[in-house]
Structure prediction request, 457 residues.
Amino acid sequence: MTSSDPRRAVPAVGALLEAPLIRAMTATIPRTVLAEAARRVTDRARSDPRGMPSDDSAWASAVAAEADRLQLPTLRPLFNATGVVLHTNLGRAPLPAAAVAAIQRTAAGACNLEFDLGTGARGSRYTHCAALLCELTGAEDALVVNNCAAALVLALHTLARGCRVLVSRGELIEIGGSFRVPDIMAQSGVTIQEVGTTNRTHLDDYEIASAGDIAAIVKVHRSNFEMSGFVAEATLRDLAGLAQRHDIPLIHDFGSGLLLSLEPFGLAGEPTARDVVREGATITLMSGDKLLGGPQAGIMLGTRTAISTCRSNPLTRAFRVDRLTIAALSATLALYRDPARAVREVPTLAMATASPTSLRDRADALATRLAARGIPCSTVATTGSVGGGAFPSARLPSWAVALGGDANSMERKLRHGRTPVIGRIAGERVLIELRSIPVGSDAELADAVLYALSEHD
Prediction:
């Protein structure tokens, strides 16, 4: 390093921390954070002296900005502008306002999680959602665990551990994150016996296989893909009859958790939980954070005997839900007592059923606001989807704001904004889809886009 090398002007970290402007920051920023921020700023200055701060004020600003970045949580709120209503990577279902309020009330202090206010004795956390679930689905009893995969493991471990279970080859599906249903089932201690073929499985296939030492039948609802053409499958009702004749349980992995028919809104082909329970499975399993629109949870609906037996399994404690999940799920379920209110107030339902006309109006308003601030954009007709392993073939007419300029640069800026906006690139333009933005969030979305594109050019 020569005497004229500009890197000689980079201050030591210790000296930088003692500068008055930076020392004053310790009133609001931990010194350990400031030290790491100063180290990163000085390292950058040494590696690229062209961007070196010019004076004490500039050094302080650089350290403060780096400290802000260091203190950002890794889990952050963002805008899902992809057009996929239930985006697994982006948190799936946004919670209804009633559920958020319930979490806040329950989290603020003590609650009767496992305390019976009527008797003054110890209670059970599993009673809080059970009555509502039975009311809404017609099930005899219900149990809530931490997700649907856990519910499947618990049901099989309780009712068929160490034994063989039947499942159609066409239902051994892969779900998100490369996890596969047969791998999850195997963790319960059962042996899987496949029946039928990939595209066609008949009731006789189960009948023949059940002549041996079989402990249960499993049916998996193919909610994340469809099969067409030369296909066949045994109905849930037929399998329930077969299971009853052989005195073995039928476990149905329903998945989506739909509580209301969406056929009036053009979304057909997905049964409701009440429809499925009526078909007679011993236990029906579904998710809380898919079409139900609540928090992540695994919901088990079934006969009193089967659910009681699962509840007493020691694994239930390992899979149990906390008070915040219970509060959010209870509040979400309560909305379904009034179906019209549920469609309005459960964001998943409101987004999935939004009319193209309303989405176009929102897109036009957003584009007008962005254009007024000098951001080139236009509105375009697009197609969204439900996502979350539900209505896999449904295409939802939608509208988006298409941003002008370099798409990759725009996408990166939006992703790195103060509140990230996650859109999609199509036709060399970034699209901000309104279908997956909850109603009432458009003003905040516009602010996030303007901040990312205007203040961070």
